[in-house]
């Protein structure tokens, strides 16, 4: 990791630790862990299992963080293989991937100083610690291994509380060298406080062990699988929505076609009803040709007859025939309840073959309301065609 990226990553870590998300995920993970079978919990569970290694005189002591009970103790005079076996016995049952080992120094070997720093120094605490080393301790920065941590202690506005922790290299480096000789690697160097750790790391970055994380790779693979499954679920949901939408659109088109067909049938019914009503009104408002023929036949004298009868759409009646005295036919038809205004059309001509007068008359049909009056009594001569 380059020094240019370290401040940004440290800022992200502080923001993460200050947020409520770590506590929420810790609680949530704990609740979910009880739902997983024990064997699977061992396989997929985990988390850093910190153990503390302390130097007491000529002996090394191992205990679990937060506990004062010793897991193992062995003299430093043993050879490297024996010390590794003693450490392994104390760590029996601990997952090697979760194991974290911290070298804990006694409080007498460490210098601690409380600092009040400007809030702007929050992103460069390590550089500020090196600058403050000469002022706060009798050592220079290159003579010590140090770390600086931000405290939750209330501070004046615009400032923050921090603690500078330093140990002389003449004290720490021989211990690290001895552990390197016997093949024991530590993940941090800290100060023991109340059976636990203070929370700093005095171990130089170049001496930090490199660890493989197979479970992390498994978790990443599972995360990728979950993302893939989520994408597939979302794609299936989207496909189902599109299928349902297409089905609804098909139903709507079918219903629209049926509605148009119903509308066409309704319009056809209205047209037919209108036509039927028109015909009924026309029939009601029009005198039938049979009634006209009957009325004319009853009113003409027996000596007259008709040769032709026509009725046009305008209600005009035209009839042609012969009579001995054609001029008197107007008087015979003027009281008709079916036709009105009878008049001759053209001149009256004599027919040599019959000795009668040939005539052509026109009249106008009356409205049905006028034709409802009682018809004239038939003449004594009766009707004729």
Q: Can I get a quick summary?
A:
It contains 10 helices and 14 strands. It has 385 residues and is α+β, with helices and mostly antiparallel strands. It has 3 domains: 165 residues, Nucleotidyltransferase, domain 5 (2-Layer Sandwich), CATH 3.30.420; 31 residues; 83 residues, Alpha-Beta Plaits (2-Layer Sandwich), CATH 3.30.70.
As laid out across the biggest beta sheet, the strand order is 3-2-1-4-8-9
- Principal-axis shape equals rod-shaped
Number of helices: 10
Residue fraction in strands: 15-25%
How many β strands by DSSP?
A: 14
Order of helices and strands: HHHEEEHEEHEEHEEHHEEHEEEH
Radius of gyration: 61 Å
Q: Sheet with the most strands? A: 6 strands, mixed
Average of per-residue pLDDT values: 83
Total count of domains = 3
Percent range of helical residues: 40-55%
Question: Structural class of the secondary elements?
Answer: alpha+beta
Organism: Dyella koreensis
Protein name: PilN domain-containing protein
Keywords: Membrane, Transmembrane, Transmembrane helix
Pfam families: PilN
